[in-house]
Task: inverse folding
């Protein structure tokens, strides 16, 4: 009996280890004190201007990234899948590239096709106003313009748990 | 009864072996993606992997970010590792993890040295009159000097060491879990050797 129990428990442990690590990539952390998101005005690669305060009343996902950052590249496809689920639900997704020009980003999108706006923070002035020290870092801004959630490192953005957390900010 | 007790003990030990997170464990091998040697430290909720970077790889990477040949060669003359720092705790048992690279020490030839951090490189680039775009790319390519991670958080970034190519060294690492100090040493890390080609004689 113990031999069978032992086998089951060992199998359970082996199966659980990868599950735990996958499950963790769906975690968003509440931002303490919910400070106001620093406002910014940036151009995207199609030269359309985006001002954060213009999106007041909507949930805004702000992702800081760069083409040369491997984990940033890794999460882009799941961000695009999430965007397809969120774009008609009072949510805005802005991916702010750090330090690169439109040509570089445009070339990059040949391999990583996304339909949400790719903004350019060429002189890194915007990222320095946010509490960000590494890429990728993502903030979720609530409809009142306050920082609600944060994620350092990649996430599975189209995971139902994350989608639910984002949509709940609209309530 | 005695046989059952032995089996029960085996079960307990097997479970502890699989789930233990309290003891430091350093593993080495070849990184799947980079196909270069790595050193990985796992202790508690910390996972730290450093992966060798070839000088040519670093030279090419920074040339691609707009650095001129002299600056790219200067960068590549230093020892670089790709570094992945991860908080492996779960939301059901969360822990806050922090580090400050200024507390880490390189042990080389029985002497202690500091890592070269973002701030050190910023001074170098100011002195060498690097362009703003290059400074930005360099800064954000490096592992942050200080960082705080909640469950599932992690960063990638390069860490840099003022050591010659091919050098072997030990690295003393300090980190904090929920404010409590932790220390470990990774021994015999090796900087990648540079490739030196000689002209082929005909």
Result:
């Amino acid at each position: 009996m113990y031999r069978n129990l032992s086998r089951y428990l060992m199998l359970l442990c082996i199966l659980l280890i990868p599950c735990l690590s996958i499950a963790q990539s769906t975690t968003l952390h509440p931002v303490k004190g919910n400070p106001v998101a620093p406002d910014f005005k940036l151009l995207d690669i199609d030269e359309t201007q985006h001002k954060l305060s213009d999106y007041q009343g909507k949930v805004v996902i702000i992702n800081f990234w760069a083409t040369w950052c491997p984990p940033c590249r890794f999460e882009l496809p799941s961000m695009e899948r999430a965007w397809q689920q969120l774009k008609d639900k009072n949510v805005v997704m802005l991916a702010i590239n750090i330090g690169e020009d439109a040509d570089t980003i445009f070339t990059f999108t040949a391999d990583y096709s996304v339909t949400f706006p790719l903004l350019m923070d060429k002189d890194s002035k915007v990222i320095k106003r946010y509490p960000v020290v590494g890429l990728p870092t993502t903030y979720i801004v609530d409809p009142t313009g306050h920082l609600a959630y944060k994620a350092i490192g990649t996430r599975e953005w189209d995971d139902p748990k994350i989608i639910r957390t984002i949509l709940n900010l609209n309530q | 009864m005695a046989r059952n007790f032995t089996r029960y003990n085996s079960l307990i030990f097997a479970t502890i072996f699989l789930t233990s997170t309290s003891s430091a464990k350093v593993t080495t091998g070849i990184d799947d993606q980079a196909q270069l040697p790595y050193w990985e430290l796992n202790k508690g909720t910390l996972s730290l992997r450093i992966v060798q970077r070839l000088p040519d790889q670093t030279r090419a990477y920074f040339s691609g970010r707009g650095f001129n040949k002299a600056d790219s060669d200067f960068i590549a003359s230093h020892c670089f590792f790709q570094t992945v720092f991860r908080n492996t705790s779960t939301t059901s048992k969360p822990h806050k993890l922090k580090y400050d690279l200024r507390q880490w020490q390189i042990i080389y030839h029985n002497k202690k040295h500091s890592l070269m951090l973002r701030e050190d490189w910023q001074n170098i680039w100011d002195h060498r009159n690097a362009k703003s775009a290059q400074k930005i790319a360099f800064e954000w390519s490096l592992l942050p000097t200080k960082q705080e991670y909640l469950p599932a958080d992690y960063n990638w970034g390069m860490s840099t060491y003022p050591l010659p190519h091919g050098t072997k060294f030990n690295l003393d690492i300090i980190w904090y879990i929920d404010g409590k100090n932790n220390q470990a040493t990774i021994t015999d890390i090796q900087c990648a050797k540079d490739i030196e080609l000689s002209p082929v004689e005909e």
Summary: The radius of gyration of chain B is 20 Å. Confidence is low (pLDDT under 50) at residues 1-22 of chain B. Chain B touches chain A through 37 residues (CB under 8 Å).
